[in-house]
Design goal:
A hairpin with a 2-residue loop joins β4 and β5. This protein has a five-stranded parallel beta sheet, with helices on both faces. A three-stranded mixed beta sheet has the order 1-2-3, covered by helices on one side. A two-stranded antiparallel ribbon has the order 4-5. The chain has 20 helices and ten strands. It is globular. Helix content is about 55%, strand content about 10%.
């Protein structure tokens, strides 16, 4: 893998300008790899988040070109002891970090920075998201708006975060002294737990109740079952609403369909404007591709753009990933971007998934976790049962063509619970190695059976 990593570095050196390569590629270290994953070490969390957000597709494209298209690229923060060589890349010798290239000043929102690329000007508006766009912009522009809360609903990759951060960016642009807090529900929970354990709960309450003009709270569905966090958030919202502050939420599920959500919080979250962002239609997908191609200086013929828009129907991230892959293949193979190359690219990034029945997947999961089908599909919330059930639901979404409703019927669940379980496992795959390994093992079993 060391040889492959060196080839990727050399390829990136030719693709990127010298400063960007020096700051964003040179400090990376190859940690290890296995049959499915390549792990690269980063000097800090900010570095990791930035490179994941801006260059992950480019890295995947280069490894794919070397025959490693099935590998997932994971960026990990290096322990302090492994950062001794970073000073040569990121420090000017007097203890002050150099200014990073190609990085406009970011707007700070609480303990986080907003993505400066997430603005209303860069958001592609279509029939699927027009109302969400208009109401978000109105909320950010009008200090005397008749409503003070907005809930943006939609599945991953449809633009919820883009609109939420666009509001924060515009508020801070109009009034730099505005106190904007941007945070996920998971981090809000973790911060509250830390405050409780360290006798700092008063500071926590002040931060979110009194020292806050705009609260941007992402991923509400993470609050499922977090009773103490829900109670604290309810009091926080009461304080913000009383003072006329603005609150913007995002969620993959309607709040009334989030499992184990207290009614007192559900009513508060639903008290403002609710808007649902749907998957983009053909014309919106086409506009997104053209906008992103122009931003990356990619020459994209109209017939190629139409072909991609017709075949990539999931979300914005899928469109952007395909576009980056197409550009990388064109560059390395010295081939013109045309319809033939686009077809070849989609064959690589959209492999045919083996399809099994829900029952076959249930049987496989039951055998692996040593459960019977009746227990797997029961109403039990015990982790020894709920985790295998969630894993089975995730695999059914990935390896069957059944609808949410169809999967739900097979597990005695409704469609919103199925979506919640799917998103939960999808997230844990990224942050929990044991979950990732189990899901990968079961996925290989499914793929081997379908050969």
């Amino acid at each position: 893998m060391e040889a492959a990593w060196n080839q990727v570095r050399e390829a990136l050196k030719g693709l990127m300008d010298e400063k960007s390569y020096t700051f964003w590629v040179k400090p990376l270290q190859l940690l290890d790899s296995d049959e499915r994953t390549i792990r690269l070490g980063c000097p800090n969390r900010f570095f990791r988040n930035w490179i994941k957000e801006n260059y992950s597709s480019l890295f995947s494209g280069q490894f794919s070109h070397l025959g490693l298209k099935d590998h997932t690229i994971l960026f990990k923060v290096l322990p302090h002891r492994d950062l001794l060589d970073f000073k040569a890349h990121g420090d000017n010798g007097n203890g002050r970090q150099l200014l990073l290239p190609n990085m406009p000043a970011k707007a700070r929102a609480g303990d986080r920075y907003l993505n400066e690329r997430f603005t209303f000007d860069t958001f592609v508006v279509g029939q699927s998201n027009e109302f969400a766009y208009q109401v978000s912009k109105a909320l950010a522009n009008d200090a005397s708006s008749p409503y003070c809360s907005l809930l943006l609903l939609g599945q991953t990759g449809l633009g919820k975060s883009h609109l939420a951060q666009s509001i924060g960016n515009l508020v801070l642009k109009k009034k730099p002294t505005a106190r904007v807090n941007y945070i996920t529900a998971e981090d809000f929970t973790n911060e509250m737990i830390f405050a409780l354990r360290n006798n700092m709960i008063d500071q926590f309450k002040t931060k979110y109740r009194k020292a806050c003009d705009v609260l941007l709270l992402e991923e509400l569905h993470f609050l499922s079952g977090k009773e103490k966090t829900q109670i604290e958030l309810g009091y926080t919202l009461d304080s913000l609403f009383t003072d006329g502050k603005k609150v913007i939420f995002t969620s993959s599920l309607p709040v009334e369909e989030i499992p184990n959500m207290k009614k007192m919080l559900t009513s508060r979250l639903s008290s403002g404007v609710l808007t649902n962002i749907e998957r983009p239609g053909f014309q919106t997908r086409l506009d997104i591709l053209k906008r992103k191609a122009a931003a990356r200086n990619i020459s994209l013929p109209d017939n190629v753009a139409c072909y991609l828009a017709e075949n990539l129907t999931q979300d914005v991230r899928q469109l952007e990933g395909a576009l980056v892959s197409l550009d990388a293949i064109s560059f390395f193979l010295k081939r013109e971007i045309n319809l033939g190359l686009a077809r070849e690219t989609l064959k690589q990034i959209l492999p045919d998934k083996p399809l099994l029945t829900i029952k076959e997947i249930q049987e496989m999961v039951c055998k692996y976790f040593k459960l019977d089908l009746e227990t797997l599909t029961s109403k039990s919330r015990k982790k020894l049962i709920s985790y295998p059930r969630s894993t089975a639901i995730y695999l059914c979404r990935e390896y069957t063509d059944s609808s949410l409703e169809g999967i739900g019927r097979s597990f005695n669940r409704n469609h919103s619970t199925v979506l919640y379980d799917y998103e939960k496992i999808k997230k844990h795959i990224q942050i929990d190695e044991s979950v990732r390994k189990e899901v990968e093992f079961l996925s290989r079993k499914i793929e081997d059976r379908s050969v």
